[in-house]
Design goal:
Two copies of one chain form a homodimer.
Chain A lengths: L7 H11 L4 E2 L2 H8 L13 E2 L4 H13 L4 E4 L18 E4 L6 E5 L4 E5 L4 H10 L2 E2 L12 H6 L7 H4 L6 E7 L5 E4 L13 H4 L8 E8 L1 E2 L3 E9 L2 H15 L3 E8 H10 L13 E9 L7 H13 L5 E4 L3 H12 L1 H8 L2 E2 L3 E2 L5 H15 L4 E7 L4 E7 L6 H6 L1 H14 L24 H14 L12
Parallel strand pairs in A: 2-4, 3-4
Antiparallel strand pairs in A: 1-2, 5-6, 6-10, 7-11, 8-9, 8-10, 12-14, 12-15, 13-14, 13-18, 16-19, 17-19, 18-19
Helix pairs in contact in A: 1-3, 8-10, 9-12, 13-15
């Protein structure tokens, strides 16, 4: 397919807006921005623009809109679905938000923080902590992902159980619309019933409806006591029971409840130096649980100990260790956070990011495991994830002896099997990773046709010329 | 203006769908459904259809769509903005959801409840309680308002501080679209990143984009210990400090924090039989605070007592009483819940439902009070509301000696004054009541033009013929 290149005169206008140092155009400089973490996509772009202000973003988008130049917004480029990577045709402008990285306002009395899209998530967390508050969004890429990307993809992570997804943490947005106009929706309110809640379209919209340039974020009381445990259980049902018990005993103050299969833990212990199994013996499943309270002078240690003791006495759990220090807690979390890295060392894997109602997770796990083993004997399920949200990364490792190409040839079929089971259990085929390029088409199998059509109508209503991140999500 | 009446043949087709007992058409029967609580609007309709299933709703909407008959969806008709009342021209079908009142599913393990739109809020609360769970939405009209209306207006109420608005309590929706198609979006998931979150448009959409027929609601652990206090403070700043102290000491477990001015309490004591002031002496402001925990074997009584004692010692509060029984707690709540009734007995009032960032509420109160007194000497501010959400019902009572008509003649000007101050402080002119007919036009003064245009585009995209609740919200 022949695609018109972006005319030099237009590129020059964009360069004039951002000024020297505000753009990259040499292939060697562009390389890290046009392929994603797992090397799935290698896109091309004539120019990566790095504006420093929302006004400059608006000016760039205006030029692109007038000339029908497609735009791919990009944050920290840590997404897994190819949503921030330009297409291979080289006809799209790549728009980095990285230099929009100012904290615009901190309002502890209102429990809000106003930040620009390019702020790195870990920096946002640090600004909140400095104000004696918590910004609870936390995920593996937090050291490099940017808040604008987190919001555009409605990021999940480890604290959704208690604090919700990125969507629940946003009170207001500033967005450059596909025609280049700037919409100031930076509300700082808990209540505002004055029409359609437009920000919800841009949250999780994967940059297909506009470019988020700033956001008002909700803050929470900073935890004063955090209790962390690593627990061995016999099966997934026991893990679910433990979660229910912890929530009951702690009054819902379970921040994270992560499931790790024996095979997954084994991968981490094998590949990641310094990781050690804190429990003796072999167990089929493990749970990493974190509870916290922000109440003055309170600890959830007794709630955690009591619940674990009762579960142990009744045979609900096999063994458990509670972190005695922050260093020990960090070591336990390292077991969980190192999983993606261990998977990379281990070689080819096929990844899934499904969610089902928590009441159906036991059924999902047993059906999915049986189905993939039937389809591909020797396949190694690497199952872990956010059990408390019903969100399992049901990944599949290369069977011993199978060539990577032969494994990849089965990928579509294996995806279909896992996704069909999730869908039969009223689940989702993308719990937290989004659709991007990878799942844009496969979602059509699972969503009602009327819903796809409504999504198209929304896209056309906001971006009639289709210049915002085309070929992603919808 | 001459408006075409709905042809009898079409009315007959709709009657045939709902069958005998499924509609009302005599003026005397229609009367309670065509005017709202405060008697502001007296609409007309040829027919009130009361379908019993989503399929029947879809069939009715299909007929209306084919014939461009406008539809006004109605729940419990407790809204305050005229959003559920047909226009005076008699050309709109009134569509009651009252008979769609089935509980479709209760899933305590997933903490979800699936209910039809016509379920009364109090019944939804009761179903949750029977499953040992909490559905936290709670507001004065809960005995008659319906969950579909609550969702369509993104209802707020007294527990937003801890649990959020109706929006935050909805996981999935079933909606009949303006063309009569049924969209099944009844997801039961905490995480589902598969495209635009379309349900968000219908939540708070006031029936202008479709008819909500069912919803999946989030449930929470049922509180096992509830502590309720009534506190006298010297000023609004002291109330804000008390809120911060309670949140800090209890670890964020403040369910409700309601502000009541002295004049407001005086109205209640004067007009509502059996209400008595639980505190001695006169004080300028009062707070009703409720804390709760669902943790086994825990009480927040010490947290409440300590915080009050400390605030008293430092001069932050003047007096306080803690409920010693559920009956006492109910009596304290009655003081708060009787305010709207007391206002009705008291005569004409001009109501406001503003929100500002909590950090600006002291400034709002002092500026608004001074401004209305300057504009209309003798006016009696009746200020109360959800201080924890920054949401104040800054109502104005008739000045002694002024005729009601003269008061009403000042209404638009007084609205403008109060709303302008809220807007200057980055606030909202409708925190929880919506726009409906009453604020549909005045919002245009406060929202950016680009936002109004985006709302119009969304409306046109989903309801191109404009048959869903026309002349409301947008």
């Amino acid at each position: 397919m022949s695609v018109p290149a972006v005319p030099d005169a237009i590129l020059d206008r964009i360069k004039a807006i951002v000024g020297p140092g505000g753009y990259l155009e040499e292939a060697v400089d562009l390389a890290p921005y046009v392929c994603e973490l797992r090397g799935r996509f290698h896109g091309r772009t004539p120019l990566l623009a790095r504006p420093k202000s929302a006004e400059d973003v608006a000016a760039i988008v205006t030029i692109c809109a007038e000339n029908r130049i497609p735009i791919v917004p990009q944050g920290g480029n840590t997404g897994l679905m190819g949503g921030a990577i330009p297409h291979e045709d080289g006809a799209e402008l790549l728009l980095s938000l990285a230099r929009l990285n100012q904290v615009r306002a901190v309002d502890p009395a209102n429990d809000t923080l106003t930040v620009e899209a390019g702020c790195v998530l870990a920096d946002v967390q640090a600004v909140a902590a400095a104000a004696d508050r918590l910004f609870p969004l936390s995920l593996a890429a937090e050291g490099s992902c940017q808040i604008g990307g987190n919001i555009s993809t409605n990021a999940g992570g480890i604290n959704v159980l208690r604090y919700g997804n990125a969507r629940e943490l946003v009170l207001g947005l500033e967005v450059v619309l596909p025609d280049g106009r700037l919409w100031d929706g930076l509300r700082e309110l808990r209540k505002d019933n004055t029409g359609y809640d437009l920000k919800q379209l841009f949250i999780g919209g994967e940059g297909t409806l506009g470019v988020i340039t700033a956001a008002v974020l909700r803050l929470f009381p900073r935890p004063r006591d955090v209790q962390t445990a690593f627990v061995a259980v016999g099966d997934v049902a026991a893990a679910c029971d433990l979660l229910a018990g912890l929530r009951r005993r702690s009054g819902g103050r379970v921040d994270a409840f992560e499931l790790i299969s024996a095979a997954t833990l084994e991968l981490v212990l094998r590949h990641i130096p310094g990781c050690i199994d804190p429990l003796a013996g072999q167990h089929p499943w493990y749970v990493l649980a974190a509870l916290s309270t922000s109440a003055e002078g309170e600890t959830l240690r007794p709630a955690l100990e009591d619940t674990l003791a009762r579960a142990h006495d009744s045979g609900g759990i096999r063994d458990a260790v509670i972190a005695e220090s922050m260093a020990q807690a960090r070591d336990l979390w390292r077991l969980r956070e190192s999983i993606p890295e261990a998977e990379r060392y281990d070689g080819a894997s096929i990844k899934h990011d499904v969610a089902v109602p928590i009441s159906r997770i036991v059924e999902f796990m047993s059906r999915a495991e049986a189905a993939v083993r039937t389809e591909l004997p020797g396949v190694r399920p690497v199952a872990f994830g956010h059990l408390g949200d019903g969100n399992i990364h049901f990944n599949l490792g290369l069977p011993p002896g199978l060539a990577v190409e032969a494994f990849r040839a089965r990928e579509e079929r294996l995806n279909r099997i896992v996704h069909d089971i999730a869908a039969e259990l009223d689940g989702s085929i993308s719990a937290e990773h989004g659709l991007g390029r990878i799942k844009r088409k496969s979602i059509r199998r699972y969503k009602p046709a009327v819903e796809i059509e409504l999504m198209r109508r929304v896209k056309r209503a906001l971006d009639p010329d289709g210049i915002m991140n085309p070929g992603k999500l919808i």
